[in-house]
Structure formats: structure tokens, C-alpha cells
Amino acid sequence: MNVTIQEETRSEQVSALVVSGEVDAYTAPQLREKLMPLCKENREIYLDLSRVDYMDSTGLGVLIGAYKQLRSGGGRLVLTGMSPRLKRLMKITGLTEILDIEDGV
């Protein structure tokens, strides 16, 4: 399966990405390519995961990398619209303790 990533600028230092499809070992590099440059340019990034069907550990690694990059510059990564399955994955891995997760999109 493929992944599509749409970027939306909300303000000068706030961006959003809408991710659709599966984020796995094959598609995670595409997400990293889009997300990491934004981490250097923005203070806040909203990642809409409402259309993500599946995410593996490679995808989680991308999220952690973005979190660390933003955090080092005083920014934040906000995950929105996660399915119950993704929320469960975040909880099992302990990421709910460090990542900002919002229910809405």
C-alpha cells in the first residue's frame, strides 16, 4: 500500500500534515522526508492520522525523531484523529506519555 501526505500551512510557525494509507518500512521514508524539514521551520506540527490504516515500528520511529527535533527547539508535535487501533499502539509503546495526542482532527 502507498502513503499520501498533504501539507497545510496554518500560520507562520504552524504546519499540518494529513497522512493517508499505511506507514511502514516502505512508506515511512516518505513521511520522514516531508516531516523532518518542517520540524526545523516550525514550532508546532499537527499530524492528522485519521486516514492511516496501519503503522509499524518504522513509522513510530519517524514520529519519535520528529518529536525529538521539535522538542529540542522548543516546539511540539501534535497527533490528531487517530483510530482506536493507533491509539492502542501508542499506549502499548508508551508514546502516549510523551506525545501530544488530540481526539479531533
TrEMBL record:
It comes from the Bacteria. InterPro entries: Anti-sigma_ant, STAS_dom, STAS_dom_sf. Residues 4-105 form the STAS domain. One of its GO terms (molecular function) is anti-sigma factor antagonist activity. Belongs to the anti-sigma-factor antagonist family. This is Anti-sigma factor antagonist. It comes from Melghirimyces thermohalophilus.
